[in-house]
Amino acid sequence: MSADVAIGLWYDLRNPAQWRRPYEDLYAATVEQIVLAEQLGLDSVWLTEHHFCDDGYTPSPLVVLGGVATRTERLRLGTNLMLPALHNPVRLAEDAATVAILSRGRFDLGVAVGYREIEFEAFGRSVRQRPSLLEESVDIMRRAWAGESIQTHGKRFQFPDLRVGPVPEHAPGLLIGGLTEPAIERAARIADGFLSTQNDHQPVYLQALERLGRDPAEGRIFAGQWAIVAPDPERTWAQIGQHALYQLNEYIGWGAFGPPDQVPRFESPEQIVQAGAYQLWDAELAVKELNALLTGCPQVRDVHFWGQLPGESVDSGSERVEYLAREVAPRVRAAAGA
User: Fold this and answer.
1) Half-sphere exposure at residue 258, Cβ-oriented, CA atoms within 13 angstroms
2) Residue among 114, 98, 95 nearest 178 (CA)
3) Residue 232: which residues within 8 A CB-CB, separation 6 or more?
4) Whole-model pTM?
5) Within its chain, how far is the Cα of 269 from the centroid?
6) Quick one: which of 247, 329, 300 has its CA closest to 11?
7) Are 175 and 191 within 8 A, CB to CB?
8) pLDDT band of 338, cuts 50, 70, 90
9) DSSP 129-159
10) Helix 202-211 crosses helix 181-190 at what angle (to 10 degrees)?
């Protein structure tokens, strides 16, 4: 178990119509929740990206993280995840470098290939070209952050012999996520770490490192968790389960877990728990489960939980944030240190 494991929060800033509030209020309250999380001792915050969503799913996570960088001093900032295929890689490199500078080196850029065809079509990209778009973007961004020439004559991008500035003193770590074996192997091959959104995929990443001749012990995993941590998680689930039902069914409808016509939607919050798509933990069970995860896979460097579910009030989420920070994180860190 890594003694420096980080425990943090995950955000998409979705604002569904049935629970809608002014976006200005939602964003301001969420930033205050993140500031509170740092004050309570949590370690990281992660934002994610999608476009053309009726619920306002975060289209500009780097802008939000730039604001968070100016309000925090210690919190590690990251994206889990962004979609380079939808961006000009030089502009993405410049924006990521700016967040790294604002945060004094506290930023990691997590990326993946993406899957929603509507996004690719709107940005003039082909979903079939996702792997090469990602790999060329990663190469260009790394060279930009190193102050090297971005000259490129690739399949997807062409850039002249130029250098990008300012160069961050501490370049972002470049993390890659994925749900399929080819995507996970790509993370093992070219990334500084693996963004894991399902714990079952972590052995696949470590096996890929070994196949590639890399030491699995040197792997780095940043693991999003689908768990509700609360003093009485069943009671909390009765209050917020409809928000989780909305969240997961939206992902299923987008094709996140396979063709939407082949993956059935959940019919109730109870069905979600029965299927194991969300875990319900009190502090005792959370400490037990996290210690087991971190002992069994010491390459996990960060675990993060949704700060609030789509449409859930920020105050409701903050109750769990405080419980996680006070009752779970110190005991997990103590076990890791031991």
Assistant:
1) 5
2) 114
3) 282
4) 0.97
5) 23
6) 247
7) yes
8) low
9) GHHHHHHHHHHHHHHHHTT----EE-SS-EE
10) 60
